[in-house]
Specification:
It contains 14 helices and twelve strands. With 394 residues, it is an alpha/beta fold. A seven-stranded mixed β-sheet has the order 2-8-7-6-5-3-4, with helices on both faces. A three-stranded antiparallel β-sheet has the order 9-12-11. Helix 8 links the parallel strand 5 and strand 6. Helix 4 packs parallel to helix 11 and helix 5 crosses helix 10. The chain starts with 13 loop residues before the first helix and ends with a helix. The structure holds pyridoxal-5'-phosphate. The site of pyridoxal-5'-phosphate (PLP) has 13 residues, from helix 5. Its cofactor is pyridoxal 5'-phosphate.
Length: 394
């Protein structure tokens, strides 16, 4: 193994040296070392990618599609994605307003790089997907967190207005619906009250709707349908089509903004993996979407209901789990609010892996996230282990 020249060890960007990029993945890897663990810490579909989507990738490879493709995705992918969004959520996108990225992960980073100037701030309702805050600080911005733990884990119009008034340097507001880690979903009227405030300010609205197809009790409403002129919409195939490893996300935005983000995107990746683009085009393709995603959604809903019954039985407090595949519940007061310690104890005594709420920022202390993207057998067993742990503590 190469021994680095010692003087080079600490010369890198201090942000890089002080940042752990993925606490969730690190904790999940820690859990994997525990024998017999049921790991419900990671947010990743357990389904295989649907057959017709895999065939599209195979066909692309066999057709020798081995040259650099368009930086923003093929016209077919962008047309299909636009049609999918317009049909499902009532948006009015054209293919020229869509850009494919290497997952929404890249979309987040490229967007902040493109839009932020030094001193700009981004409002992030917390608890939240951790990559947002890192993306902001790495690109010279400041994070303004609004803790939503006392407002049902949703940003309210009042809190939004106060934050925008108090921090005039806010340039973008992030809304994630359905939410990670909470699984909560904003209703149309809740979004309308936010839109009424947002319209009055010169701010971008970054709407991460990667879980849009996984809304159970209601219908998904897209901010991009309500406030298209300010919205940068993120969507993708990772979660709703069980394609995390294909690494394709989608940005939809007014073309001038899409193109500005596209400059950064080209600098980072130049072009996208062709086979993944072909597979994503199929996933978003006309007629291909409904049966596949509806089947997975029905299965997730069944698993959610099984676990909700267990939480009810244990009288545990939880956020309204209306979407995505997460259940977000509060540990009993008697256990304190050191959720990292609690999650480790649960993992070692019951072999049940859940994600500590603090990994998702302010408002997460004392909470735990269950990902129910796991087999029914694992969900049933997880229920038993929750009963064994929390049932005896009361
Ligand atoms: C809210 C949210 N946004 C974005 C991502 C990243 O998705 P992708 O696989 O497209 O990079 C995730 C993944 O967990 C997520 O939960």
């Amino acid at each position: 193994m190469i021994q680095v020249k010692p003087s080079l060890v600490t010369q890198a960007n201090p942000l890089v040296q002080g940042t752990s990029t993925n606490a969730i993945l690190a904790f999940s890897n820690e859990l994997k070392t525990i024998a017999g663990i049921i790991n419900l810490a990671i947010g990743e579909p357990d389904f295989n990618t649907p057959e017709h989507i895999k065939q599209a990738a195979i066909h692309d490879v066999l057709a020798n599609d081995s040259h650099y493709g368009p930086y923003d995705g093929t016209v077919t992918l962008r047309e299909n994605a636009a049609r999918f969004l317009n049909k499902h959520y009532g948006t009015q996108y054209e293919a020229s307003e869509i850009m494919a990225t290497v997952g929404v992960t890249e979309a987040i980073y490229a967007t902040f790089k493109a839009l932020l100037n030094p001193g700009d701030a981004v409002l992030i309702p917390t608890p939240n997907f951790p990559q947002y805050g890192i993306g902001v600080t790495f690109n010279g911005g400041q994070v303004v967190n609004v803790d939503t733990s006392t407002t049902g884990f949703k940003l309210t119009a009042t809190d939004l207005e106060v934050a925008l008034q108090t921090h005039p340097q806010i340039k973008a507001v992030i809304i994630t619906s359905p939410g990670n880690p909470t699984g909560v979903v904003y209703t149309e009227s809740e979004l309308q009250t936010l839109v009424a405030v947002l319209r009055a300010y010169d701010v971008y609205v970054i709407s991460d709707e990667i879980y849009s197809e996984l809304v159970y009790d209601n219908r998904h409403v897209s901010l991009a349908a309500l406030l298209p002129e300010q919205t940068i919409l993120f969507n993708g195939v990772s979660k709703t089509h069980a394609m995390t490893g294909y690494r394709i996300g989608i940005i939809a935005a007014p073309q001038v903004i899409r193109d500005q983000i596209g400059v950064v995107h080209q600098l980072i990746v130049a072009a996208l993996p062709n086979a993944s683009v072909a597979a994503a085009a199929e996933a978003f393709g006309a007629g291909a979407d409904d049966a596949v995603t509806t089947g997975m959604k029905a299965e997730y809903q069944k698993r959610r209901d099984m676990l909700v019954a267990v939480l009810d039985e244990l009288h545990l407090v939880y956020a309204q789990p209306a979407g995505a595949f997460y259940l977000w519940f509060k540990a009993p007061e008697s256990l304190g609010d050191d959720d990292w310690q609690l999650a480790r104890d649960l993992a070692h005594t019951q072999q049940l892996g859940l994600m500590p709420g603090s990994a998702f920022g302010d408002g997460g202390a004392g909470w735990l996230r269950i990902s129910y993207a796991a087999s029914t057998a694992d969900i049933l067993e997880a229920g038993q282990r929750l009963r064994a742990y929390f049932g005896t503590l009361k």
